[in-house]
Every structure is written in C-alpha cells, then in structure tokens.
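Need Ribosomal RNA small subunit methyltransferase C's 3D structure for a figure. Predict it.
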Amino acid sequence: MTLEEYHSLHKTPVPGGYLYTKAGARGLADPAYELLAQHLEPHGQKALDLNPGIGMASYALRQHGLQVQAIETSRASLRCLEASFGATVEVSRGLPWETEPDSTDLVVLVLPANRGTRYVELSLLGAARALRMGGRLWIAGSRDKGFEHYFRLAQELLGFGLLVKRDGPLRVAVLEKEKPAPELPAVWQSFACDLQGQTLHFAYLPGVFSGGHIDPGSAMLLRELPDQPGHVLDIGGGYGALSRPLVGRALSLTLLEDDWPSVLSARQNLGEKATVLHSDVDEALTPSQTFTTIVTNPPFHVGGLVVLETAIAFIEAAYARLERGGKFYLVANRFLPYEPLLEARFATVHTLAVDSHKVLLAHKSD
Ligand SMILES: C[S@@+](CC[C@H](N)C(=O)[O-])C[C@H]1O[C@@H](n2cnc3c(N)ncnc32)[C@H](O)[C@@H]1O
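Structure prediction for Ribosomal RNA small subunit methyltransferase C:
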C-alpha cells in the first residue's frame, strides 16, 4: 500500500446512503457500530456520539432527524467524519469525558473496550454528565469485552436500563438518566522510570498505549539509539516514551500521533522541547520536511483488530521523510514480518537486537 492509497477516502455503503472510510480509521469493521445504528431509537432533539469512529450511529441519528454532535479522538476518523457529514453533524476533536453538563437528550456510545477500563468508565461518566434528566444513553459492545460489567456501571450512574438486542456476543442496551451524575474525578496519571541512567517522569491520560510503564519494546529501541541522533521524527509517538529520553540529545524533535489523549500526554511530557502534532501518519507535516533519524514502535491493532496497513504506512512515511543517509529505527513483536517491507525500500536493513521484541535499523542510501 502506498502512502497515497493509505490516505485516500473510500465510500462505504450504509442503509440509505454512504459514509467515507479510510485505512487506519477507528470503527472500521466493528459490528457493534452497525448493530447500534440499526437498533437505536430517537429521543428529544439533541444527540451526542461519544465514540463515533466513521460515524455509523451519527448517520442513523441524522436519519431520525436529530441534531448531532460527534466527539472523536482519532485524526484518521475525524477526516472521515468531516468528509461524510460536512456541516450536517457538528464534528469535534475532544475527550469523551469533557462533555457539557445537562446539554443533550440522547448519547450513543460504542464501548471503547480496547482502550482500557478507565477510559470506558470515564466515557460513561461523560455520557451521564452530558445528558439532561430523563435523557437516554444507548450503548453497544461485546459480552467478550466486558459489556455486562459496563452495563451495570452505566445503571449505577444513570438508573433504569434495558437490554434491547443480543446478536452472538454483541449487545445493545438503552438507559434513562434518573439521577444527577457525579463530578468528574482527576483524570491525569503519572509514573517515574529509570531510563539510561536518568529518572524520567511521565504523565498520561487514560486510553494511551502502555500508560504506567515503558513498553518493553520501546525500552529495547531506546538502547539502540545513537547519542546524537540529529533531527528526530517519532511516528506514532504515544505519550512520548521514545522522544522524552532524546530531549537534550536531538537537534530537534517532532512527534506525530493520531490519538488526541496521546497528543495531550506527549505535550505534557515534552513541553516546548518538541513539536507534537495530531497527525494520521505524516499528514500534518509540510511536504518538504525531512529528518536525520526516524523512530517508531508502530501499532498493529486498530480498535482491537490486527491490521498492518498503518504500520506499512509508517514505513512508507519513514522512507519519504528521511534525509539521504538517514536512519530508521523500528521495534516490533518478533512475529511481525517487517523485514521484507523494509528491504523493498531501504538500501540496507539490520537486526540490532532480538529479545521479547526485535529492533530493526534501515538505512536510506546517500
Ligand atoms: C505501539 S504504540 C507506541 C507508542 C509510543 N511510541 C511508545 O513507544 O510508547 C503506537 C502508537 O501509534 C499511534 N497511532 C496509531 N495509528 C496512527 C496513525 N495513523 N498515525 C499516527 N499515529 C498512530 C497509536 O495511537 C499509538 O500511540
């Protein structure tokens, strides 16, 4: 897949029309979205979609004549939503718990179970707080990913709840707000760790990759980096685990990240010392920007599904964004077949370390 193909939008048919999709967007191929869109019923006038993905539930709500606001964290999904809805849905980047209290009649939420319990709990709290008294929350998810637990939690927050649909492991339920929602608790968390002789402190928001500890693969990659890496690009930088130790060693640091809570976390950890961009792969860079060293620990899950297309786009972007003679460091699970992809592009490819993960170094020719 070329970068151009990765970034292109495709029309996907939905009952009564189509939505735009693209590689890397959340909510693609997740049947919970479809089931929720089929079964939700209108209530009141204003609706809020707190995990829209490519917008299937928002689309159904529009068809029911409701005024819809969709809050999304993924840059790739935001692109799809903006293309599909134009001005007909108020699409905004944001955190699902930062909702305006008592502002809406209906909330829809496909449970973001793959983002961890704390993230789902806060999303439910955001939904409960946004609803007016008597407003309704529709949730969808899988029994295999904690649906029963989250349904009980939603009942504790709101009140009456009814299971509307079972389809294999998938569930859809509706709840009614019968009591005031609790205040939002403190959401930021932090941890300290020793990396290459220094103690570093990291802050992070719920839902980010490897919150609370440095991923063992990322720690392996850090051990292989040169003392003076020059101008560095960190693709899929998360909360800054790879970039933070390079502060003071790199001539400049640029971090690209698709996920908004991760972007906010990286900005908190890197401050003025790096440029942190909300970016689907390299789309937020200007066409001429190139770097001496590129580092990545690429994702291979999107919304809980194993997909390599985003990782392939990371490799394509790394090749395009490296200066001549530049170096690309990639860490991955041992079973992932990145070597042939790198060899197809780069002049040389070496395995620098193998343990729980493998660290690969690819050179761009001079
Ligand atoms: C395996 S994590 C690594 C995070 C961080 N570099 C570390 O080492 O802890 C992969 C990161 O890629 C981000 N990501 C996923 N898809 C992306 C995309 N299309 N563009 C940019 N970043 C993306 C994820 O949100 C996640 O933070």
